[in-house]
């Protein structure tokens, strides 16, 4: 082996070692700093069809990040006394400047951020005497079922959520497993979902559903399309399960309903792909209640309602078409900034 080859080998070993040390240190920090969720009192298992209608209610909820002991309820609130009601099947866009609490609102519905023990309801006599045994959670409900009492794994499996940064199983996991980690869909479902988001030709050219997937070989936009395909698979499987259980007449058009949460799901795709994604979302999730965080105001115009957030509060809400015309509205302000001052 030449000197150059030996040197290259040493450098490779060294960088591998550094990567491994970094991974070990991250794992150590994770196990030391991240406390497991406490699921005490969260025993409610929703019926199989929940959430069939997708009616969302948030009544005066505040939330902050960090340990509950450290939480100062008067400042640093990510969400501040939030009230929001979303009707079954309604499509609501959440807008606002960076850090205004948009993502936190979605995380709240998934119980990934906990509401503060009530910051809004008056204390009971027991609480006033310091005798409170159980912390009270401010009320949030979907289709009438309280989220604070619900089993979190069930809640998270029933709500379909697409994060800003798509998550993949370790490199080498087959495409189909990545699309359908619970193995509840057929190969035909998976292929149809990839076709719906126009990713099938790309996946087919790399060996199809059984081929190992290396997420690093997907562009950021392709990752977002893949993530949307995953949501489509889940919706179709759920619709089939409901039809099998309740018959196709069950609850008319709403038998296919549910809740879809979208957080900047098209931030990395071009304008044309963005429009295509919107078209697919509208067609696939027509009966679903959709709550979507987006900076793309053009996309928001097609929604039933836009809600503007600022400092963890809802400061405006209305039809996007009306708000954009209304002199002095927050949405119009965002729209003007987005359009370089042109109304
Ligand atoms: N993991 C976290 N730890 C501590 N504070 C956080 C965390 N995530 C968000 N925050 C804080 O909560 C507040 C709301 O953040 P959030 O991410 O909900 O805003 P956003 O409107 O979604 O912002 P963006 O448009 O930039 O994504 C901000 O003040 C932010 O600094």
Automatic annotation (TrEMBL):
SUPFAM superfamilies: P-loop containing nucleoside triphosphate hydrolases (SSF52540). Keywords: ATP-binding, Nucleotide-binding. One of its GO terms (molecular function) is ATP binding. Pfam families: ABC_tran (PF00005). The keyword rRNA-binding does not apply. It comes from the Eukaryota. GO terms for cellular component: membrane. Residues 56-336 form the ABC transporter domain. InterPro entries: AAA+_ATPase (IPR003593), ABC_transporter-like_ATP-bd (IPR003439), ABC_transporter-like_CS (IPR017871), ABC_transporter_C-like (IPR050173), P-loop_NTPase (IPR027417). This is ABC transporter domain-containing protein. It comes from Thermothelomyces thermophilus (strain ATCC 42464 / BCRC 31852 / DSM 1799).
